[in-house]
Amino acid sequence: MLKIKDLKVSVEDTEILKGVNLEIKPGEVHAIMGPNGSGKSTLGFVLAGKDDYEVTSGSVEYLGEDLLELSPDERARAGVFLGFQYPVEIPGVSNANFLKMIINSLRKSKGQEALDSVAMLKLLKEKLATLGMDVSMLKRSLNDGFSGGEKKRNEILQMAVLEPKLAILDETDSGLDIDALKVVSDGVNAMRTADRGFLIITHYQRLLNYIVPDYVHVLVDGEIVKSGDKSLALELEEKGYDWVKKTSGEVVS
Amino acid sequence: MLPKYQVEVPEHFRALFNRLNDRLNGQRDKSFQSLQIKGEKGLFNKGFPTTRNEDYKYTSLNRVYNKDYELPGPLKVDAPLMEKLRGRFNSRLDAHRICFHNGQLVPELTDVNEEGVELLDFSALGGEHPLESELMKHLDQTLSQTDNPFLHLNAALCSHPVVLVVKKNHQTARPVEVIFHYDADGKEVIVNPQFMVLARENSKITVVETQCSDSSNEENLVFANVFQRWIVEKNASTDHVKIQEMGKSDFIIHNLIASQEGNSHFYALTADLGSRIARNNLEVHLLESHTDTDMFGLFMGDGQQHIDNQTFLDHAIPHCESREWYKGVLSGRSRGVFNGKVLVRQDAQKTNAFQQNNTLLASDHARMDSKPQLEIYADDVKCSHGATIGQMEDEILFYLKSRGLDEADAGELVKVAFLAEVFNSMDEGEIKNTLSERVRQKLRQIQ
Does the residue B96 lie in any domain? Predict the structure, then answer.
């Protein structure tokens, strides 16, 4: 569903991604690991369509379409979801209203009618229940004054209501205690289906104990230097990123 | 000699007074006439303010002074006008109705029917009514004490002052919706409506006011110079929501002076969405202790709009509380001005005063001048003030778009969220819904 070919990306004339190749098929969970500054978050932002990231070469094909041609909102409506490492806070917009807006905007793009408030509340309550989250979350302002864990759970809630085809989760584990980590992972695992792809961006192996990936890729200095199965993550945890840097070149497929 | 930084009132204004006199031809009662004379004298003695006057530094009114205005013609309410005026009322709001067209009360569309609430056409009292001398005293005093020449201009040219009285211990069952509608009818017209609210002891009333005109252009515009005097007696509580939706070439100077007696509450929400130039002069005088004052404002500009909010809150008495919060979104080449003065006099110990102004600039060419002023002469007080002027944050917009909201929806959401504190100051209900709807409508226009 996603084919990234030789993707090179610059920010303010500095090349961050230096030729990334990656293919994700429906139902697969891919993890991208790498040290700080390796370009992991850049990859997430480029796929979601953030400005200021200049694609200098390469291509990204999503469900047979040129993803790079779409605006961020078009990508979202086409089923691409980015869970932010640092979700923004918007005081003055209730979580419930925000969720209603994004659900109805998605429905509109599919030619479906807007949900009325009864149906909406029912849907939201269902989603909250599956994620083990409290209804009180709906009344609060969007991410305003949320703890790190609450913000991440809120990202998962948004993902759950949007039901994306491709979910990219950027450092979803950062700032989470073990309980929050479990809630977030359970939420992701509950959404693993045969037609949905995941790209999990993480610095630590810890998250991958909970969300077990099909493939693990190591991104160092803007390039994927090693790929493997879940055991690669464990090996990395043991030996550190320096180990891959030294042995880079032998890319496992 | 004119006071410093004022300019002579142009001669064509004098002609207006003469014309009004000819038209009225001695029909008005004596005390009312004395106010008119006082207004005229005061105006020519004071002159109009220039931008060298600190309170008008960011708002040039030359464009307003230089038009050769006409007075509106006599009121003729035909079927099309009735239709138009009726459409200005909020059909979903269960309220008493007061309708002004070009400053004159339209009896066909005015319906205040509640024991304990009285609507009086001041000019028709004929010196007989027991309230007349009391009201006259208030107006006379206000004119004597003010430096604001627009109050004098209003007094000199107002022909139909109207008073809304809420009787002692009466809590009004329904809000009062007041429409001030203007129509230049192909000319340049000056209108001077005068409206007083007298809330007697322990009474309660909510007034929702709309200032509006039909679409205007350079040769077809209204200059509305409104004067409102609110008298809030002991233990009384008044809520005032004003929505200004004048045409895009119109001028409006909205002058409101409120005075509060002990334990009273005055709430004002000023929402400016329309007009070419809008200037609000809102003054609240605290006369006794334990009063509560709320001044909230929304302003939204685009194109060439200029919206100036000038507020003055005089804490002369101890143990009073006030909150003031103005928020706005400016787009296009529009300009906004906030000049909020809170004076805490030496005797006003235990004052609690909060003041804030925040503006979101939604275009590179919009401009905001904000001057939150807090002058404190008492030492045992809790006061804060501040102002921010910011732009739409790309990070926030990207986040919203990444959830599937398009550019327009994302922008609207950010702006509505920005204005939240002002909406939060209102009770839930039809008035809040209406305002929110009109604000959203305006926001959709200006992006």
Answer: yes
pLDDT digits (tens, 9 = 90+) for B346-355: 999 999 999 9
In chain B, whose CA is at the least distance from the CA of A48? B402
Task: Tally the domains of chain B.
Answer: 1
Which residues touch A57 (CB under 8 Å, ≥6 apart)? A6, A7, A8, A19
How far apart are the C-alpha atoms of B35 and B315, rounded to whole Å?
A: 28
Percentage with pLDDT > 70 across chain A = 97
pLDDT band at B25 (very low <50, low <70, confident <90, very high): low
Q: How far is A21 from chain B (nearest CA, A)?
A: 23
- Domain boundaries defined on chain A: 2-87+164-252, 89-145
Q: Which pLDDT score, from 0 to 100, does residue A43 have? A: 96
Identify the closest residue of chain B to A107 by CA–CA distance: B404
Contacts with A162 from chain B: Cβ below 8 Å: 403-404
Say whether A158 and B403 touch across the interface (CB within 8 A).
yes
Question: What does DSSP assign to residue B217?
Answer: B
Using a CB–CB cut-off of 8 Å, the residues of B that contact A are 393-396, 398-399, 401-407, 409-410, 413-414, 416-421
pLDDT band at A247 (very low <50, low <70, confident <90, very high): low
Interchain contact, A84 vs B399, CB within 8 Å: yes
> Would you give the distance in Å from CA B308 to the centre of its chain?
11
Phi, psi (rounded to 5 degrees) for B89:
-80, 155
Inter-chain residue contact B409 with A71, CB threshold 8 Å:
no
Q: Which residues contact A99 (CB under 8 A, 6 or more apart)?
A: A124, A138, A157, A158, A161
> How large is the average pLDDT for residues A182-203?
92
Per-residue model confidence as pLDDT tens digits over B262-314 = 999 999 999 999 999 999 999 999 999 999 999 999 999 999 999 999 999 99
Structure tokens at A172: 């979803």
pLDDT of residue B27: 59
Give strand pairing partners of B214.
none
pLDDT tier for residue B20 given thresholds of 50, 70 and 90: confident
Q: What is the ipTM of this complex?
A: 0.94
CB B20 within 8 A of CB B159: yes
Residue B437 lies inside a defined structural domain of this protein: no
Confirm whether B247 is domain-assigned: yes
Across the interface, whether the CB atoms of B417 and A92 are under 8 A apart is answered yes
Nearest neighbour of B405 by CB, restricted to A73, A82, A91 = A73
**Residue B36: left if φ>0, alpha if ψ -120 to 50, beta else—which one?**
alpha
Give the single-character DSSP code of B149. Answer: H
Contact A102 B399 (CB under 8 A): no
pLDDT tier for residue A203 given thresholds of 50, 70 and 90: confident
Give the chain A residue nearest B393 (alpha carbons): A88
Distance between A221 CA and the closest CA of chain B, angstroms: 25
CATH homologous superfamily for the domain A2-87+164-252 = P-loop containing nucleotide triphosphate hydrolases (3.40.50.300)
> Is residue B269 a part of any domain in this protein?
yes
pTM of the model: 0.89
Contact B409 A105 (CB under 8 A): yes
At residue B224, the pLDDT reads 97
Q: What is the pLDDT of residues B29-53, one digit of tens each?
A: 677 788 888 999 999 999 999 999 9
Count interface pairs A-B at CB distance under 8 A: 67
